[in-house]
Design brief:
By secondary structure, the protein is α+β, with helices and mostly antiparallel strands. The protein folds into 4 domains: about 210 residues, Beta Polymerase, domain 2, CATH 3.30.460; about 130 residues, Four Helix Bundle (Hemerythrin (Met), subunit A) (Up-down Bundle), CATH 1.20.120.330; about 140 residues, no CATH class; about 260 residues, no CATH class. Helix content is about 55%, strand content about 10%. The strands form 3 sheets. It has an 8-stranded antiparallel β-sheet, with helices on both faces. Strands 3-2-1-4 form a 4-stranded mixed β-sheet. α6 links the parallel β2 and β3. α4 packs across α6, α17 packs parallel to α20 and α24 crosses α30. The protein is globular, with a radius of gyration of 34 Å.
Length: about 900
C-alpha cells in the first residue's frame, strides 16, 4: 500500500548520497503497518513509532557517514535528508489516516492534501532543517481531518522533528498569500506529498491565476527589500563570522534568485534560467558551484553541532575546515584556506544576485511616471556609453573591446557620472579579463586612469570594490589576486584582506573630504597642509599585499611594491617612499601601543627611524587609516591619544632637535604645570610635593594625575590605601590612582584586584616616592572597551578595597573567571618573549606576546614579583585574542637585566605561568 515513491520524483532518487533503501526501508515499515491495519490493532502505534525511531537513527547515520566520506557532495546529501523526511512523514500520515483514524468512505469535505513548503518543498534539507508542512482541506476542517492531522503531528514530534505546520483551505492560502510575501514565497515552493492530488493541483492553478499573475513587480520589490533588510541585520559579505544561510552572499541570496525565476517564469530548476537569458552558461556553472559549497558548509555545521547552526563562528570554522579536508599549507592554516574559499564563493553569489536582480529590476520595474520622464534631467555620458534604466551601459560591445583601456575607462565613467554599471557591462568585463595583459598595464594612459580612480573622484572605494568583485583589480595588479577574499583567522580583523585594504582607502578619502576633522584632527590637518597623495594611496593599496605568505608581510610587501610602483606610473622617489611606508607601516602603531611614549628614548628611537617630517606625516595618516580599516570598533580615543602624542612629540624632536626631549626639560615643564594647578597650596607644601618624586614620575603622567597624587599624598599617613577614580573621557578609560606604603609585590596585587572587578587594564605606571610611598596609576576599561560608567565607580572602589585588604584571595577568585569562550578556542597564538635593553635608558623592556585571557596580567606580574623584579610601567596592547604585555623593569638592585642566564630563567618562569594559566582557561 506504499505510495511514497510518488513523493520524491524519480529523477531525484539517483542523486541521493547513499542507496534509498539504506536511508529508509519502505517495504519493512509497510509490512508492519499492513499487519496492524489488518488486525485493527491501534495499540501497534508504539511498536510502529519505535520502528520509525530506529529507522530514523539508521537513515541519518547512513547519510552522515556517506557525506563525511564525500564532504563536498552537498546536493545528494540535502536530497537524502529530504527523502528520509518524506519517508518518516509518509509513514506517520498513513499510520494516522489508515490505522488510528480510518475513514473508508470520506465525504467530499473530508479530503486532505499534504504539501511540503519552503526549503523542504524544494527537496533541500540540512541535517536539522525544519519540516514545513501545509495541510490543505477543501472547506473548513472537519473533526476527522483534525484528528488525522493531530495524530500525524504527534508522531512527528515523538520523532523529535521540528515541524512548522499550517492547516488551510485553498481560499485561506490565496488570502494569506496576498497579505504576506513570506507565506507567498513558502507556497511558491510547495511540493505534493500525500493525500488528495486534485486539491494540490487546484492550489497550484489558483496560486498562479489569482495570486502570482500580474504581481511580478510587487514580488521583485518585496524580495529586494527583504534582501536589503537581511543584509543590514546580518552584516556585509566580508564579516569574519558570517551567517551561511542569511548573510550577504549566503544561501538565501541564491534562493531568492530561484524564487523570482519561478514566480515570473515558472521555472522548476535553476538550469532553466539559462535559455531565458537571465544566466549565461558560465554563470549557471558558478551558481551551482557556489550553491554546492554553501550547502556543504551548512550541512557540516549541523552535523558538528547536532543542531540547526547557521553562524560560522571561529570554532566552527576550524571544525568545518577539518571536516572538509582542508590542511595547513605554505605557512597558512587549513581554516584560513577554507575561509578564503568560502568568501570567494560568497563573492560569486554577490555577483550573480546583483546581475540577476538588476536585470529583472530593469525589465519589470522600468516604467516611470510620465512627469518624471519628462522633467528628469538626463545625465550626459561620453561617446561609447549609453544609459539603460538609469545604469551605465556599453553602446557597442565589439567597438568597446577594440580598445583594452575601455575596461578601466568604464569604472572612470561610472565615478564621473555617479551611475551604477549595467549588468550586461559587468558581464562583458568579467568575460574579457584576458585583455588586461602586461602591455596594457604598462601603458601610461592605463596608469593614469587607475591612479585617477583613487585620486580624482572622491569615492575611490566604490570603484575599487566593484573592480575587485569583477576581477579587474587582480588582473591589473596580478599580485593582488593572492589576497582576494583572504581571511586572517583572528578576532582582531573584521574583514578579509582585500576588503580591509578598500576600507582603509575609504577612510583616507573621508579624511580628505574633511568628514572626520573632529575625530581625527591631526590626520586631517596633515592632509590639509598637503602630502603626496599618489604615494599615500598606493601605499595603502599595497600595504598588506603580502599577507598570508611565510615571510614577514611588511618586508615582502615592500619588495613587491618596488616592482609594482613603476607599473602604476610612480616616479622613482615615490616608489622609494611607498616601499619605506610599507616596510614600516606597523612601526608607529607598535611604538604607540607597545612602548611607553612618555619615555624620551621611545620618541628619540622613533624619530631616528622616521628621519623626516614628510615621512612622519605620511606614516601617521597611513597608520590611522590602517587601524580604522581593521573593523568598526577598533579605533577609539585611547589609540587616538597615543598616536596623537607620539606624532606631536616626534615632530617636535625632528623640528627642534632631540635635546627638546630631555628628561630634565620635561620634568621642569610638568612641575610648573602642577604649581599652576595647585596655586592655592602653601609654598612649603608645594615644595614638598615637587621634591619627593624621581624624574620618571614627572615625564610619565598628565598634570591631572599629578594633582590627584598630590592631594592623596598630602593626607597619606601609611595606615590605609588611598584610591582616586577618574573618568578619563579623552582616552575612553577610567584612571585608577593608588597611594600606599611601598612593599614588594604590590603591583601584582593591584592587577589582581582590578581583574576581579572585571577591569581590563590598558596602561599602568608605577612610581616610588623618596619618602617610601608607591604611586601607581592604572587606566582601565570595561568589557566593551569603554570607561566605566560613573554609577559603577563606588562599587569598583569598594571591591578594590576589599581585595587589597585581603578579604578576597585574588588568585583563587580569578581561577573561576579564567575561562576562554568556546568560540575562541580554535585560535593558535604562539608565545613570544623578548628582552630589550636598548629601548630605554633606565629599564629593561620585557615584551610578552601571547594569547589573551582573564587573569593573564596578574599571572605575569605575580611571577615577576616572585622573581624580585621591580615593575615601573606596564603597557598593554590587545589585538583580538592576542595581547602584547610590555613591562619596563629593573632588578632588585635597580639594574637592567643584561645577563642572558637571568633572562633565560625569567623567560622560563613567565612561560610556565602562561602555560599553567592557559591550561586552566582551556578547562
Amino acid at each position: 500500500m506504499s505510495d511514497l515513491t510518488l513523493k520524491i520524483p524519480e529523477k531525484v532518487l539517483p542523486e541521493l548520497i547513499c542507496d534509498p533503501s539504506d536511508v529508509f526501508d519502505v517495504a519493512a515499515f509497510d509490512a508492519l503497518l499492513d499487519k496492524a491495519i489488518a488486525d485493527n490493532d491501534r495499540t501497534a502505534r508504539t511498536a510502529l513509532l519505535e520502528h520509525l525511531k530506529a529507522a530514523q537513527v539508521d537513515g541519518r547515520a547512513c547519510i552522515a557517514d556517506a557525506f563525511r566520506k564525500h564532504p563536498f557532495r552537498s546536493r545528494p546529501t540535502t536530497r537524502a535528508y529530504s527523502y528520509l523526511t518524506d519517508c518518516l512523514f509518509g509513514a506517520a500520515f498513513r499510520t494516522a489516516q489508515h490505522l488510528l483514524h480510518p475513514n473508508p468512505t470520506p465525504t467530499k469535505g473530508e479530503r486532505i492534501a499534504v504539501l511540503a513548503v519552503g526549503g523542504y518543498g524544494r527537496g533541500e534539507m540540512a541535517p536539522f532543517s525544519d519540516v514545513d508542512l501545509l495541510f490543505l482541506t477543501p472547506y473548513k476542517i472537519t473533526p476527522w481531518a483534525e484528528s488525522v492531522i493531530e495524530a500525524t503531528l504527534y508522531l512527528l514530534w515523538d520523532l523529535k522533528l521540528k515541524v512548522g505546520h499550517s492547516s488551510r483551505t485553498v481560499r485561506d492560502c490565496i488570502r494569506l498569500g496576498g497579505e504576506d510575501f513570506t507565506i507567498r514565497t513558502a507556497m511558491l515552493e510547495n511540493r505534493f506529498l500525500l493525500g488528495d492530488p486534485d486539491l494540490a493541483t487546484e492550489l497550484d492553478s489558483r496560486l498562479r491565476a489569482d495570486l502570482f499573475e500580474g504581481t511580478e513587480r510587487d514580488f521583485i520589490r518585496a524580495k529586494l527589500a527583504e534582501r536589503e533588510t537581511r543584509h543590514r541585520k546580518q552584516g556585509q559579505r566580508y564579516v569574519v563570522e558570517p551567517n551561511v544561510k542569511e548573510g550577504k552572499g549566503g544561501l538565501r541570496d541564491l534562493q531568492s534568485l530561484f524564487w523570482i525565476g519561478k514566480y515570473i517564469y515558472k521555472v522548476q530548476d535553476a538550469a532553466e534560467l539559462v535559455p531565458l537569458g537571465l544566466f549565461t552558461r558560465d554563470e549557471f556553472h558558478d551558481f551551482v558551484k557556489a550553491e554546492d559549497f554553501l550547502w556543504a558548509t551548512r550541512c557540516h555545521m549541523h552535523l558538528l553541532t547536532g543542531r540547526p547552526t547557521e553562524q560560522l563562528t571561529f570554532d566552527m570554522q576550524a571544525a568545518v575546515a577539518d571536516a572538509m579536508g582542508y590542511e595547513d599549507k605554505s605557512g597558512r592554516r587549513g581554516v584560513e584556506i577554507f575561509m578564503q574559499a568560502f568568501f570567494r564563493q560568497a563573492t560569486v553569489v554577490g555577483d550573480l544576485t546583483r546581475i540577476f536582480l538588476t536585470e529583472l529590476e530593469a525589465i519589470h520595474l522600468k516604467d516611470e511616471p510620465l512627469l518624471d520622464r519628462l522633467f528628469k534631467r538626463r545625465r550626459r555620458v561620453k561617446p561609447g556609453y549609453e544609459v539603460i534604466h538609469n545604469r551605465l551601459a556599453i553602446a557597442d560591445d565589439a567597438a568597446f573591446l577594440k580598445d583594452k583601456l575601455n575596461l578601466l575607462r568604464l569604472f572612470e565613467e561610472g565615478l564621473r557620472t555617479g551611475m551604477l554599471i549595467h549588468p550586461d557591462a559587468m558581464r562583458l568585463i568579467k568575460s574579457n579579463l584576458d585583455l588586461i595583459d602586461e602591455e596594457m598595464r604598462r601603458t601610461p594612459e592605463a596608469q593614469r586612469i587607475f591612479l585617477d580612480l583613487m585620486l580624482k573622484h572622491g569615492n575611490p572605494e566604490r570603484a575599487l570594490r566593484r573592480m575587485n568583485e569583477l576581477g579587474v583589480l587582480a588582473a591589473f595588479i596580478p599580485e593582488f589576486e593572492h589576497v582576494v577574499a583572504m581571511m586572517q583567522f583572528n578576532m582582531y580583523h573584521s574583514y578579509t584582506v582585500d576588503e580591509h585594504i578598500i576600507q582603509c582607502i575609504a577612510q583616507l578619502a573621508m579624511i580628505e573630504k574633511e568628514e572626520l576633522v573632529e575625530d581625527l584632527p591631526v590626520a586631517s590637518s596633515i592632509l590639509k597642509r598637503g602630502v603626496n597623495r599618489r604615494v599615500l594611496y598606493v601605499a595603502l593599496l599595497l600595504h598588506d599585499i603580502a599577507k598570508g605568505k611565510p615571510e614577514d608581510h611588511a618586508i615582502l610587501g615592500a619588495q613587491m611594491a618596488r616592482k609594482i610602483g613603476p607599473r602604476l606610473g610612480l616616479k622613482q622617489d615615490e616608489v622609494d617612499t611607498v616601499e619605506w611606508l610599507i616596510r614600516y607601516h606597523l612601526l608607529m602603531s607598535d611604538m604607540a601601543q607597545k612602548r611607553d611614549i612618555a619615555d624620551p628614548r621611545t620618541v628619540r628611537d622613533f624619530a631616528k627611524a622616521v628621519q623626516t617630517v614628510k615621512r612622519l606625516d605620511l606614516l601617521c595618516v597611513l597608520t590611522v587609516c590602517d587601524i580604522r580599516g581593521v573593523g568598526p570598533d577598533v579605533w577609539n580615543n585611547w589609540k587616538a591619544v597615543l598616536i596623537r602624542a607620539l606624532y606631536r612629540q616626534t615632530k617636535r624632536a625632528l623640528e627642534d632637535g632631540m635635546e627638546a626631549l630631555t628628561r630634565e626639560g620635561r620634568g621642569t615643564e610638568a612641575k610648573r604645570a602642577l604649581r599652576e594647578a595647585l596655586s592655592d597650596w602653601p609654598r612649603k607644601d608645594l615644595q614638598t610635593e615637587t621634591t619627593r618624586h624621581y624624574e620618571p614620575y614627572w615625564q610619565g603622567l598628565h598634570v591631572t594625575a599629578h594633582v590627584a597624587f598630590a592631594n592623596m599624598l598630602r593626607n597619606a599617613d601609611g595606615s590605609k590605601v588611598l584610591i582616586d577614580l577618574y573618568p578619563d573621557e579623552d582616552r575612553d578609560a577610567t584612571r585608577v590612582c593608588f597611594i600606599m606604603p611601598d612593599h614588594h609585590g604590590i603591583f601584582a596585587r593591584l592587577t589582581g584586584a582590578l581583574a576581579l572587578v572585571g577591569a581590563n587594564i590598558v596602561d599602568a605606571r608605577s612610581y616610588t616616592t623618596k619618602d617610601g610611598f608607591v604611586a601607581d596609576a592604572f587606566w582601565v576599561q570595561d568589557a566593551d572597551g569603554n570607561a566605566f560608567d560613573p554609577s559603577r565607580l563606588p562599587r569598583l572602589r569598594k571591591m578594590i578595597e576589599r581585595t587589597l585588604a585581603g578579604e578576597v584571595v585574588t588568585r583563587d577568585a580569578i581561577k573561576d573567571r579564567d575561562k576562554i569562550k568556546k568560540r575562541e578556542k580554535a585560535f593558535r597564538v604562539p608565545t613570544h618573549i623578548t628582552f630589550d635593553n636598548d629601548g630605554s635608558d633606565i629599564y629593561t623592556i620585557i615584551e610578552v606576546d601571547t594569547r589573551d585571557r582573564p587573569g593573564l596580567l596578574h599571572d605575569l606580574t605575580r611571577t615577576l614579583a616572585a622573581s624580585n623584579v621591580y615593575i615601573a610601567n606596564a603597557v598593554i596592547a590587545t589585538y583580538g585574542e592576542q595581547v602584547v604585555d610590555t613591562f619596563y623593569v629593573k632588578d632588585m638592585f635597580g639594574l637592567k637585566y643584561f645577563s642572558e642566564n637571568k633572562q633565560a630563567s625569567l623567560e622560563k618562569k613567565l612561560r610556565t605561568a602562561i602555560s599553567e594559566g592557559s591550561a586552566r582557561a582551556e578547562g
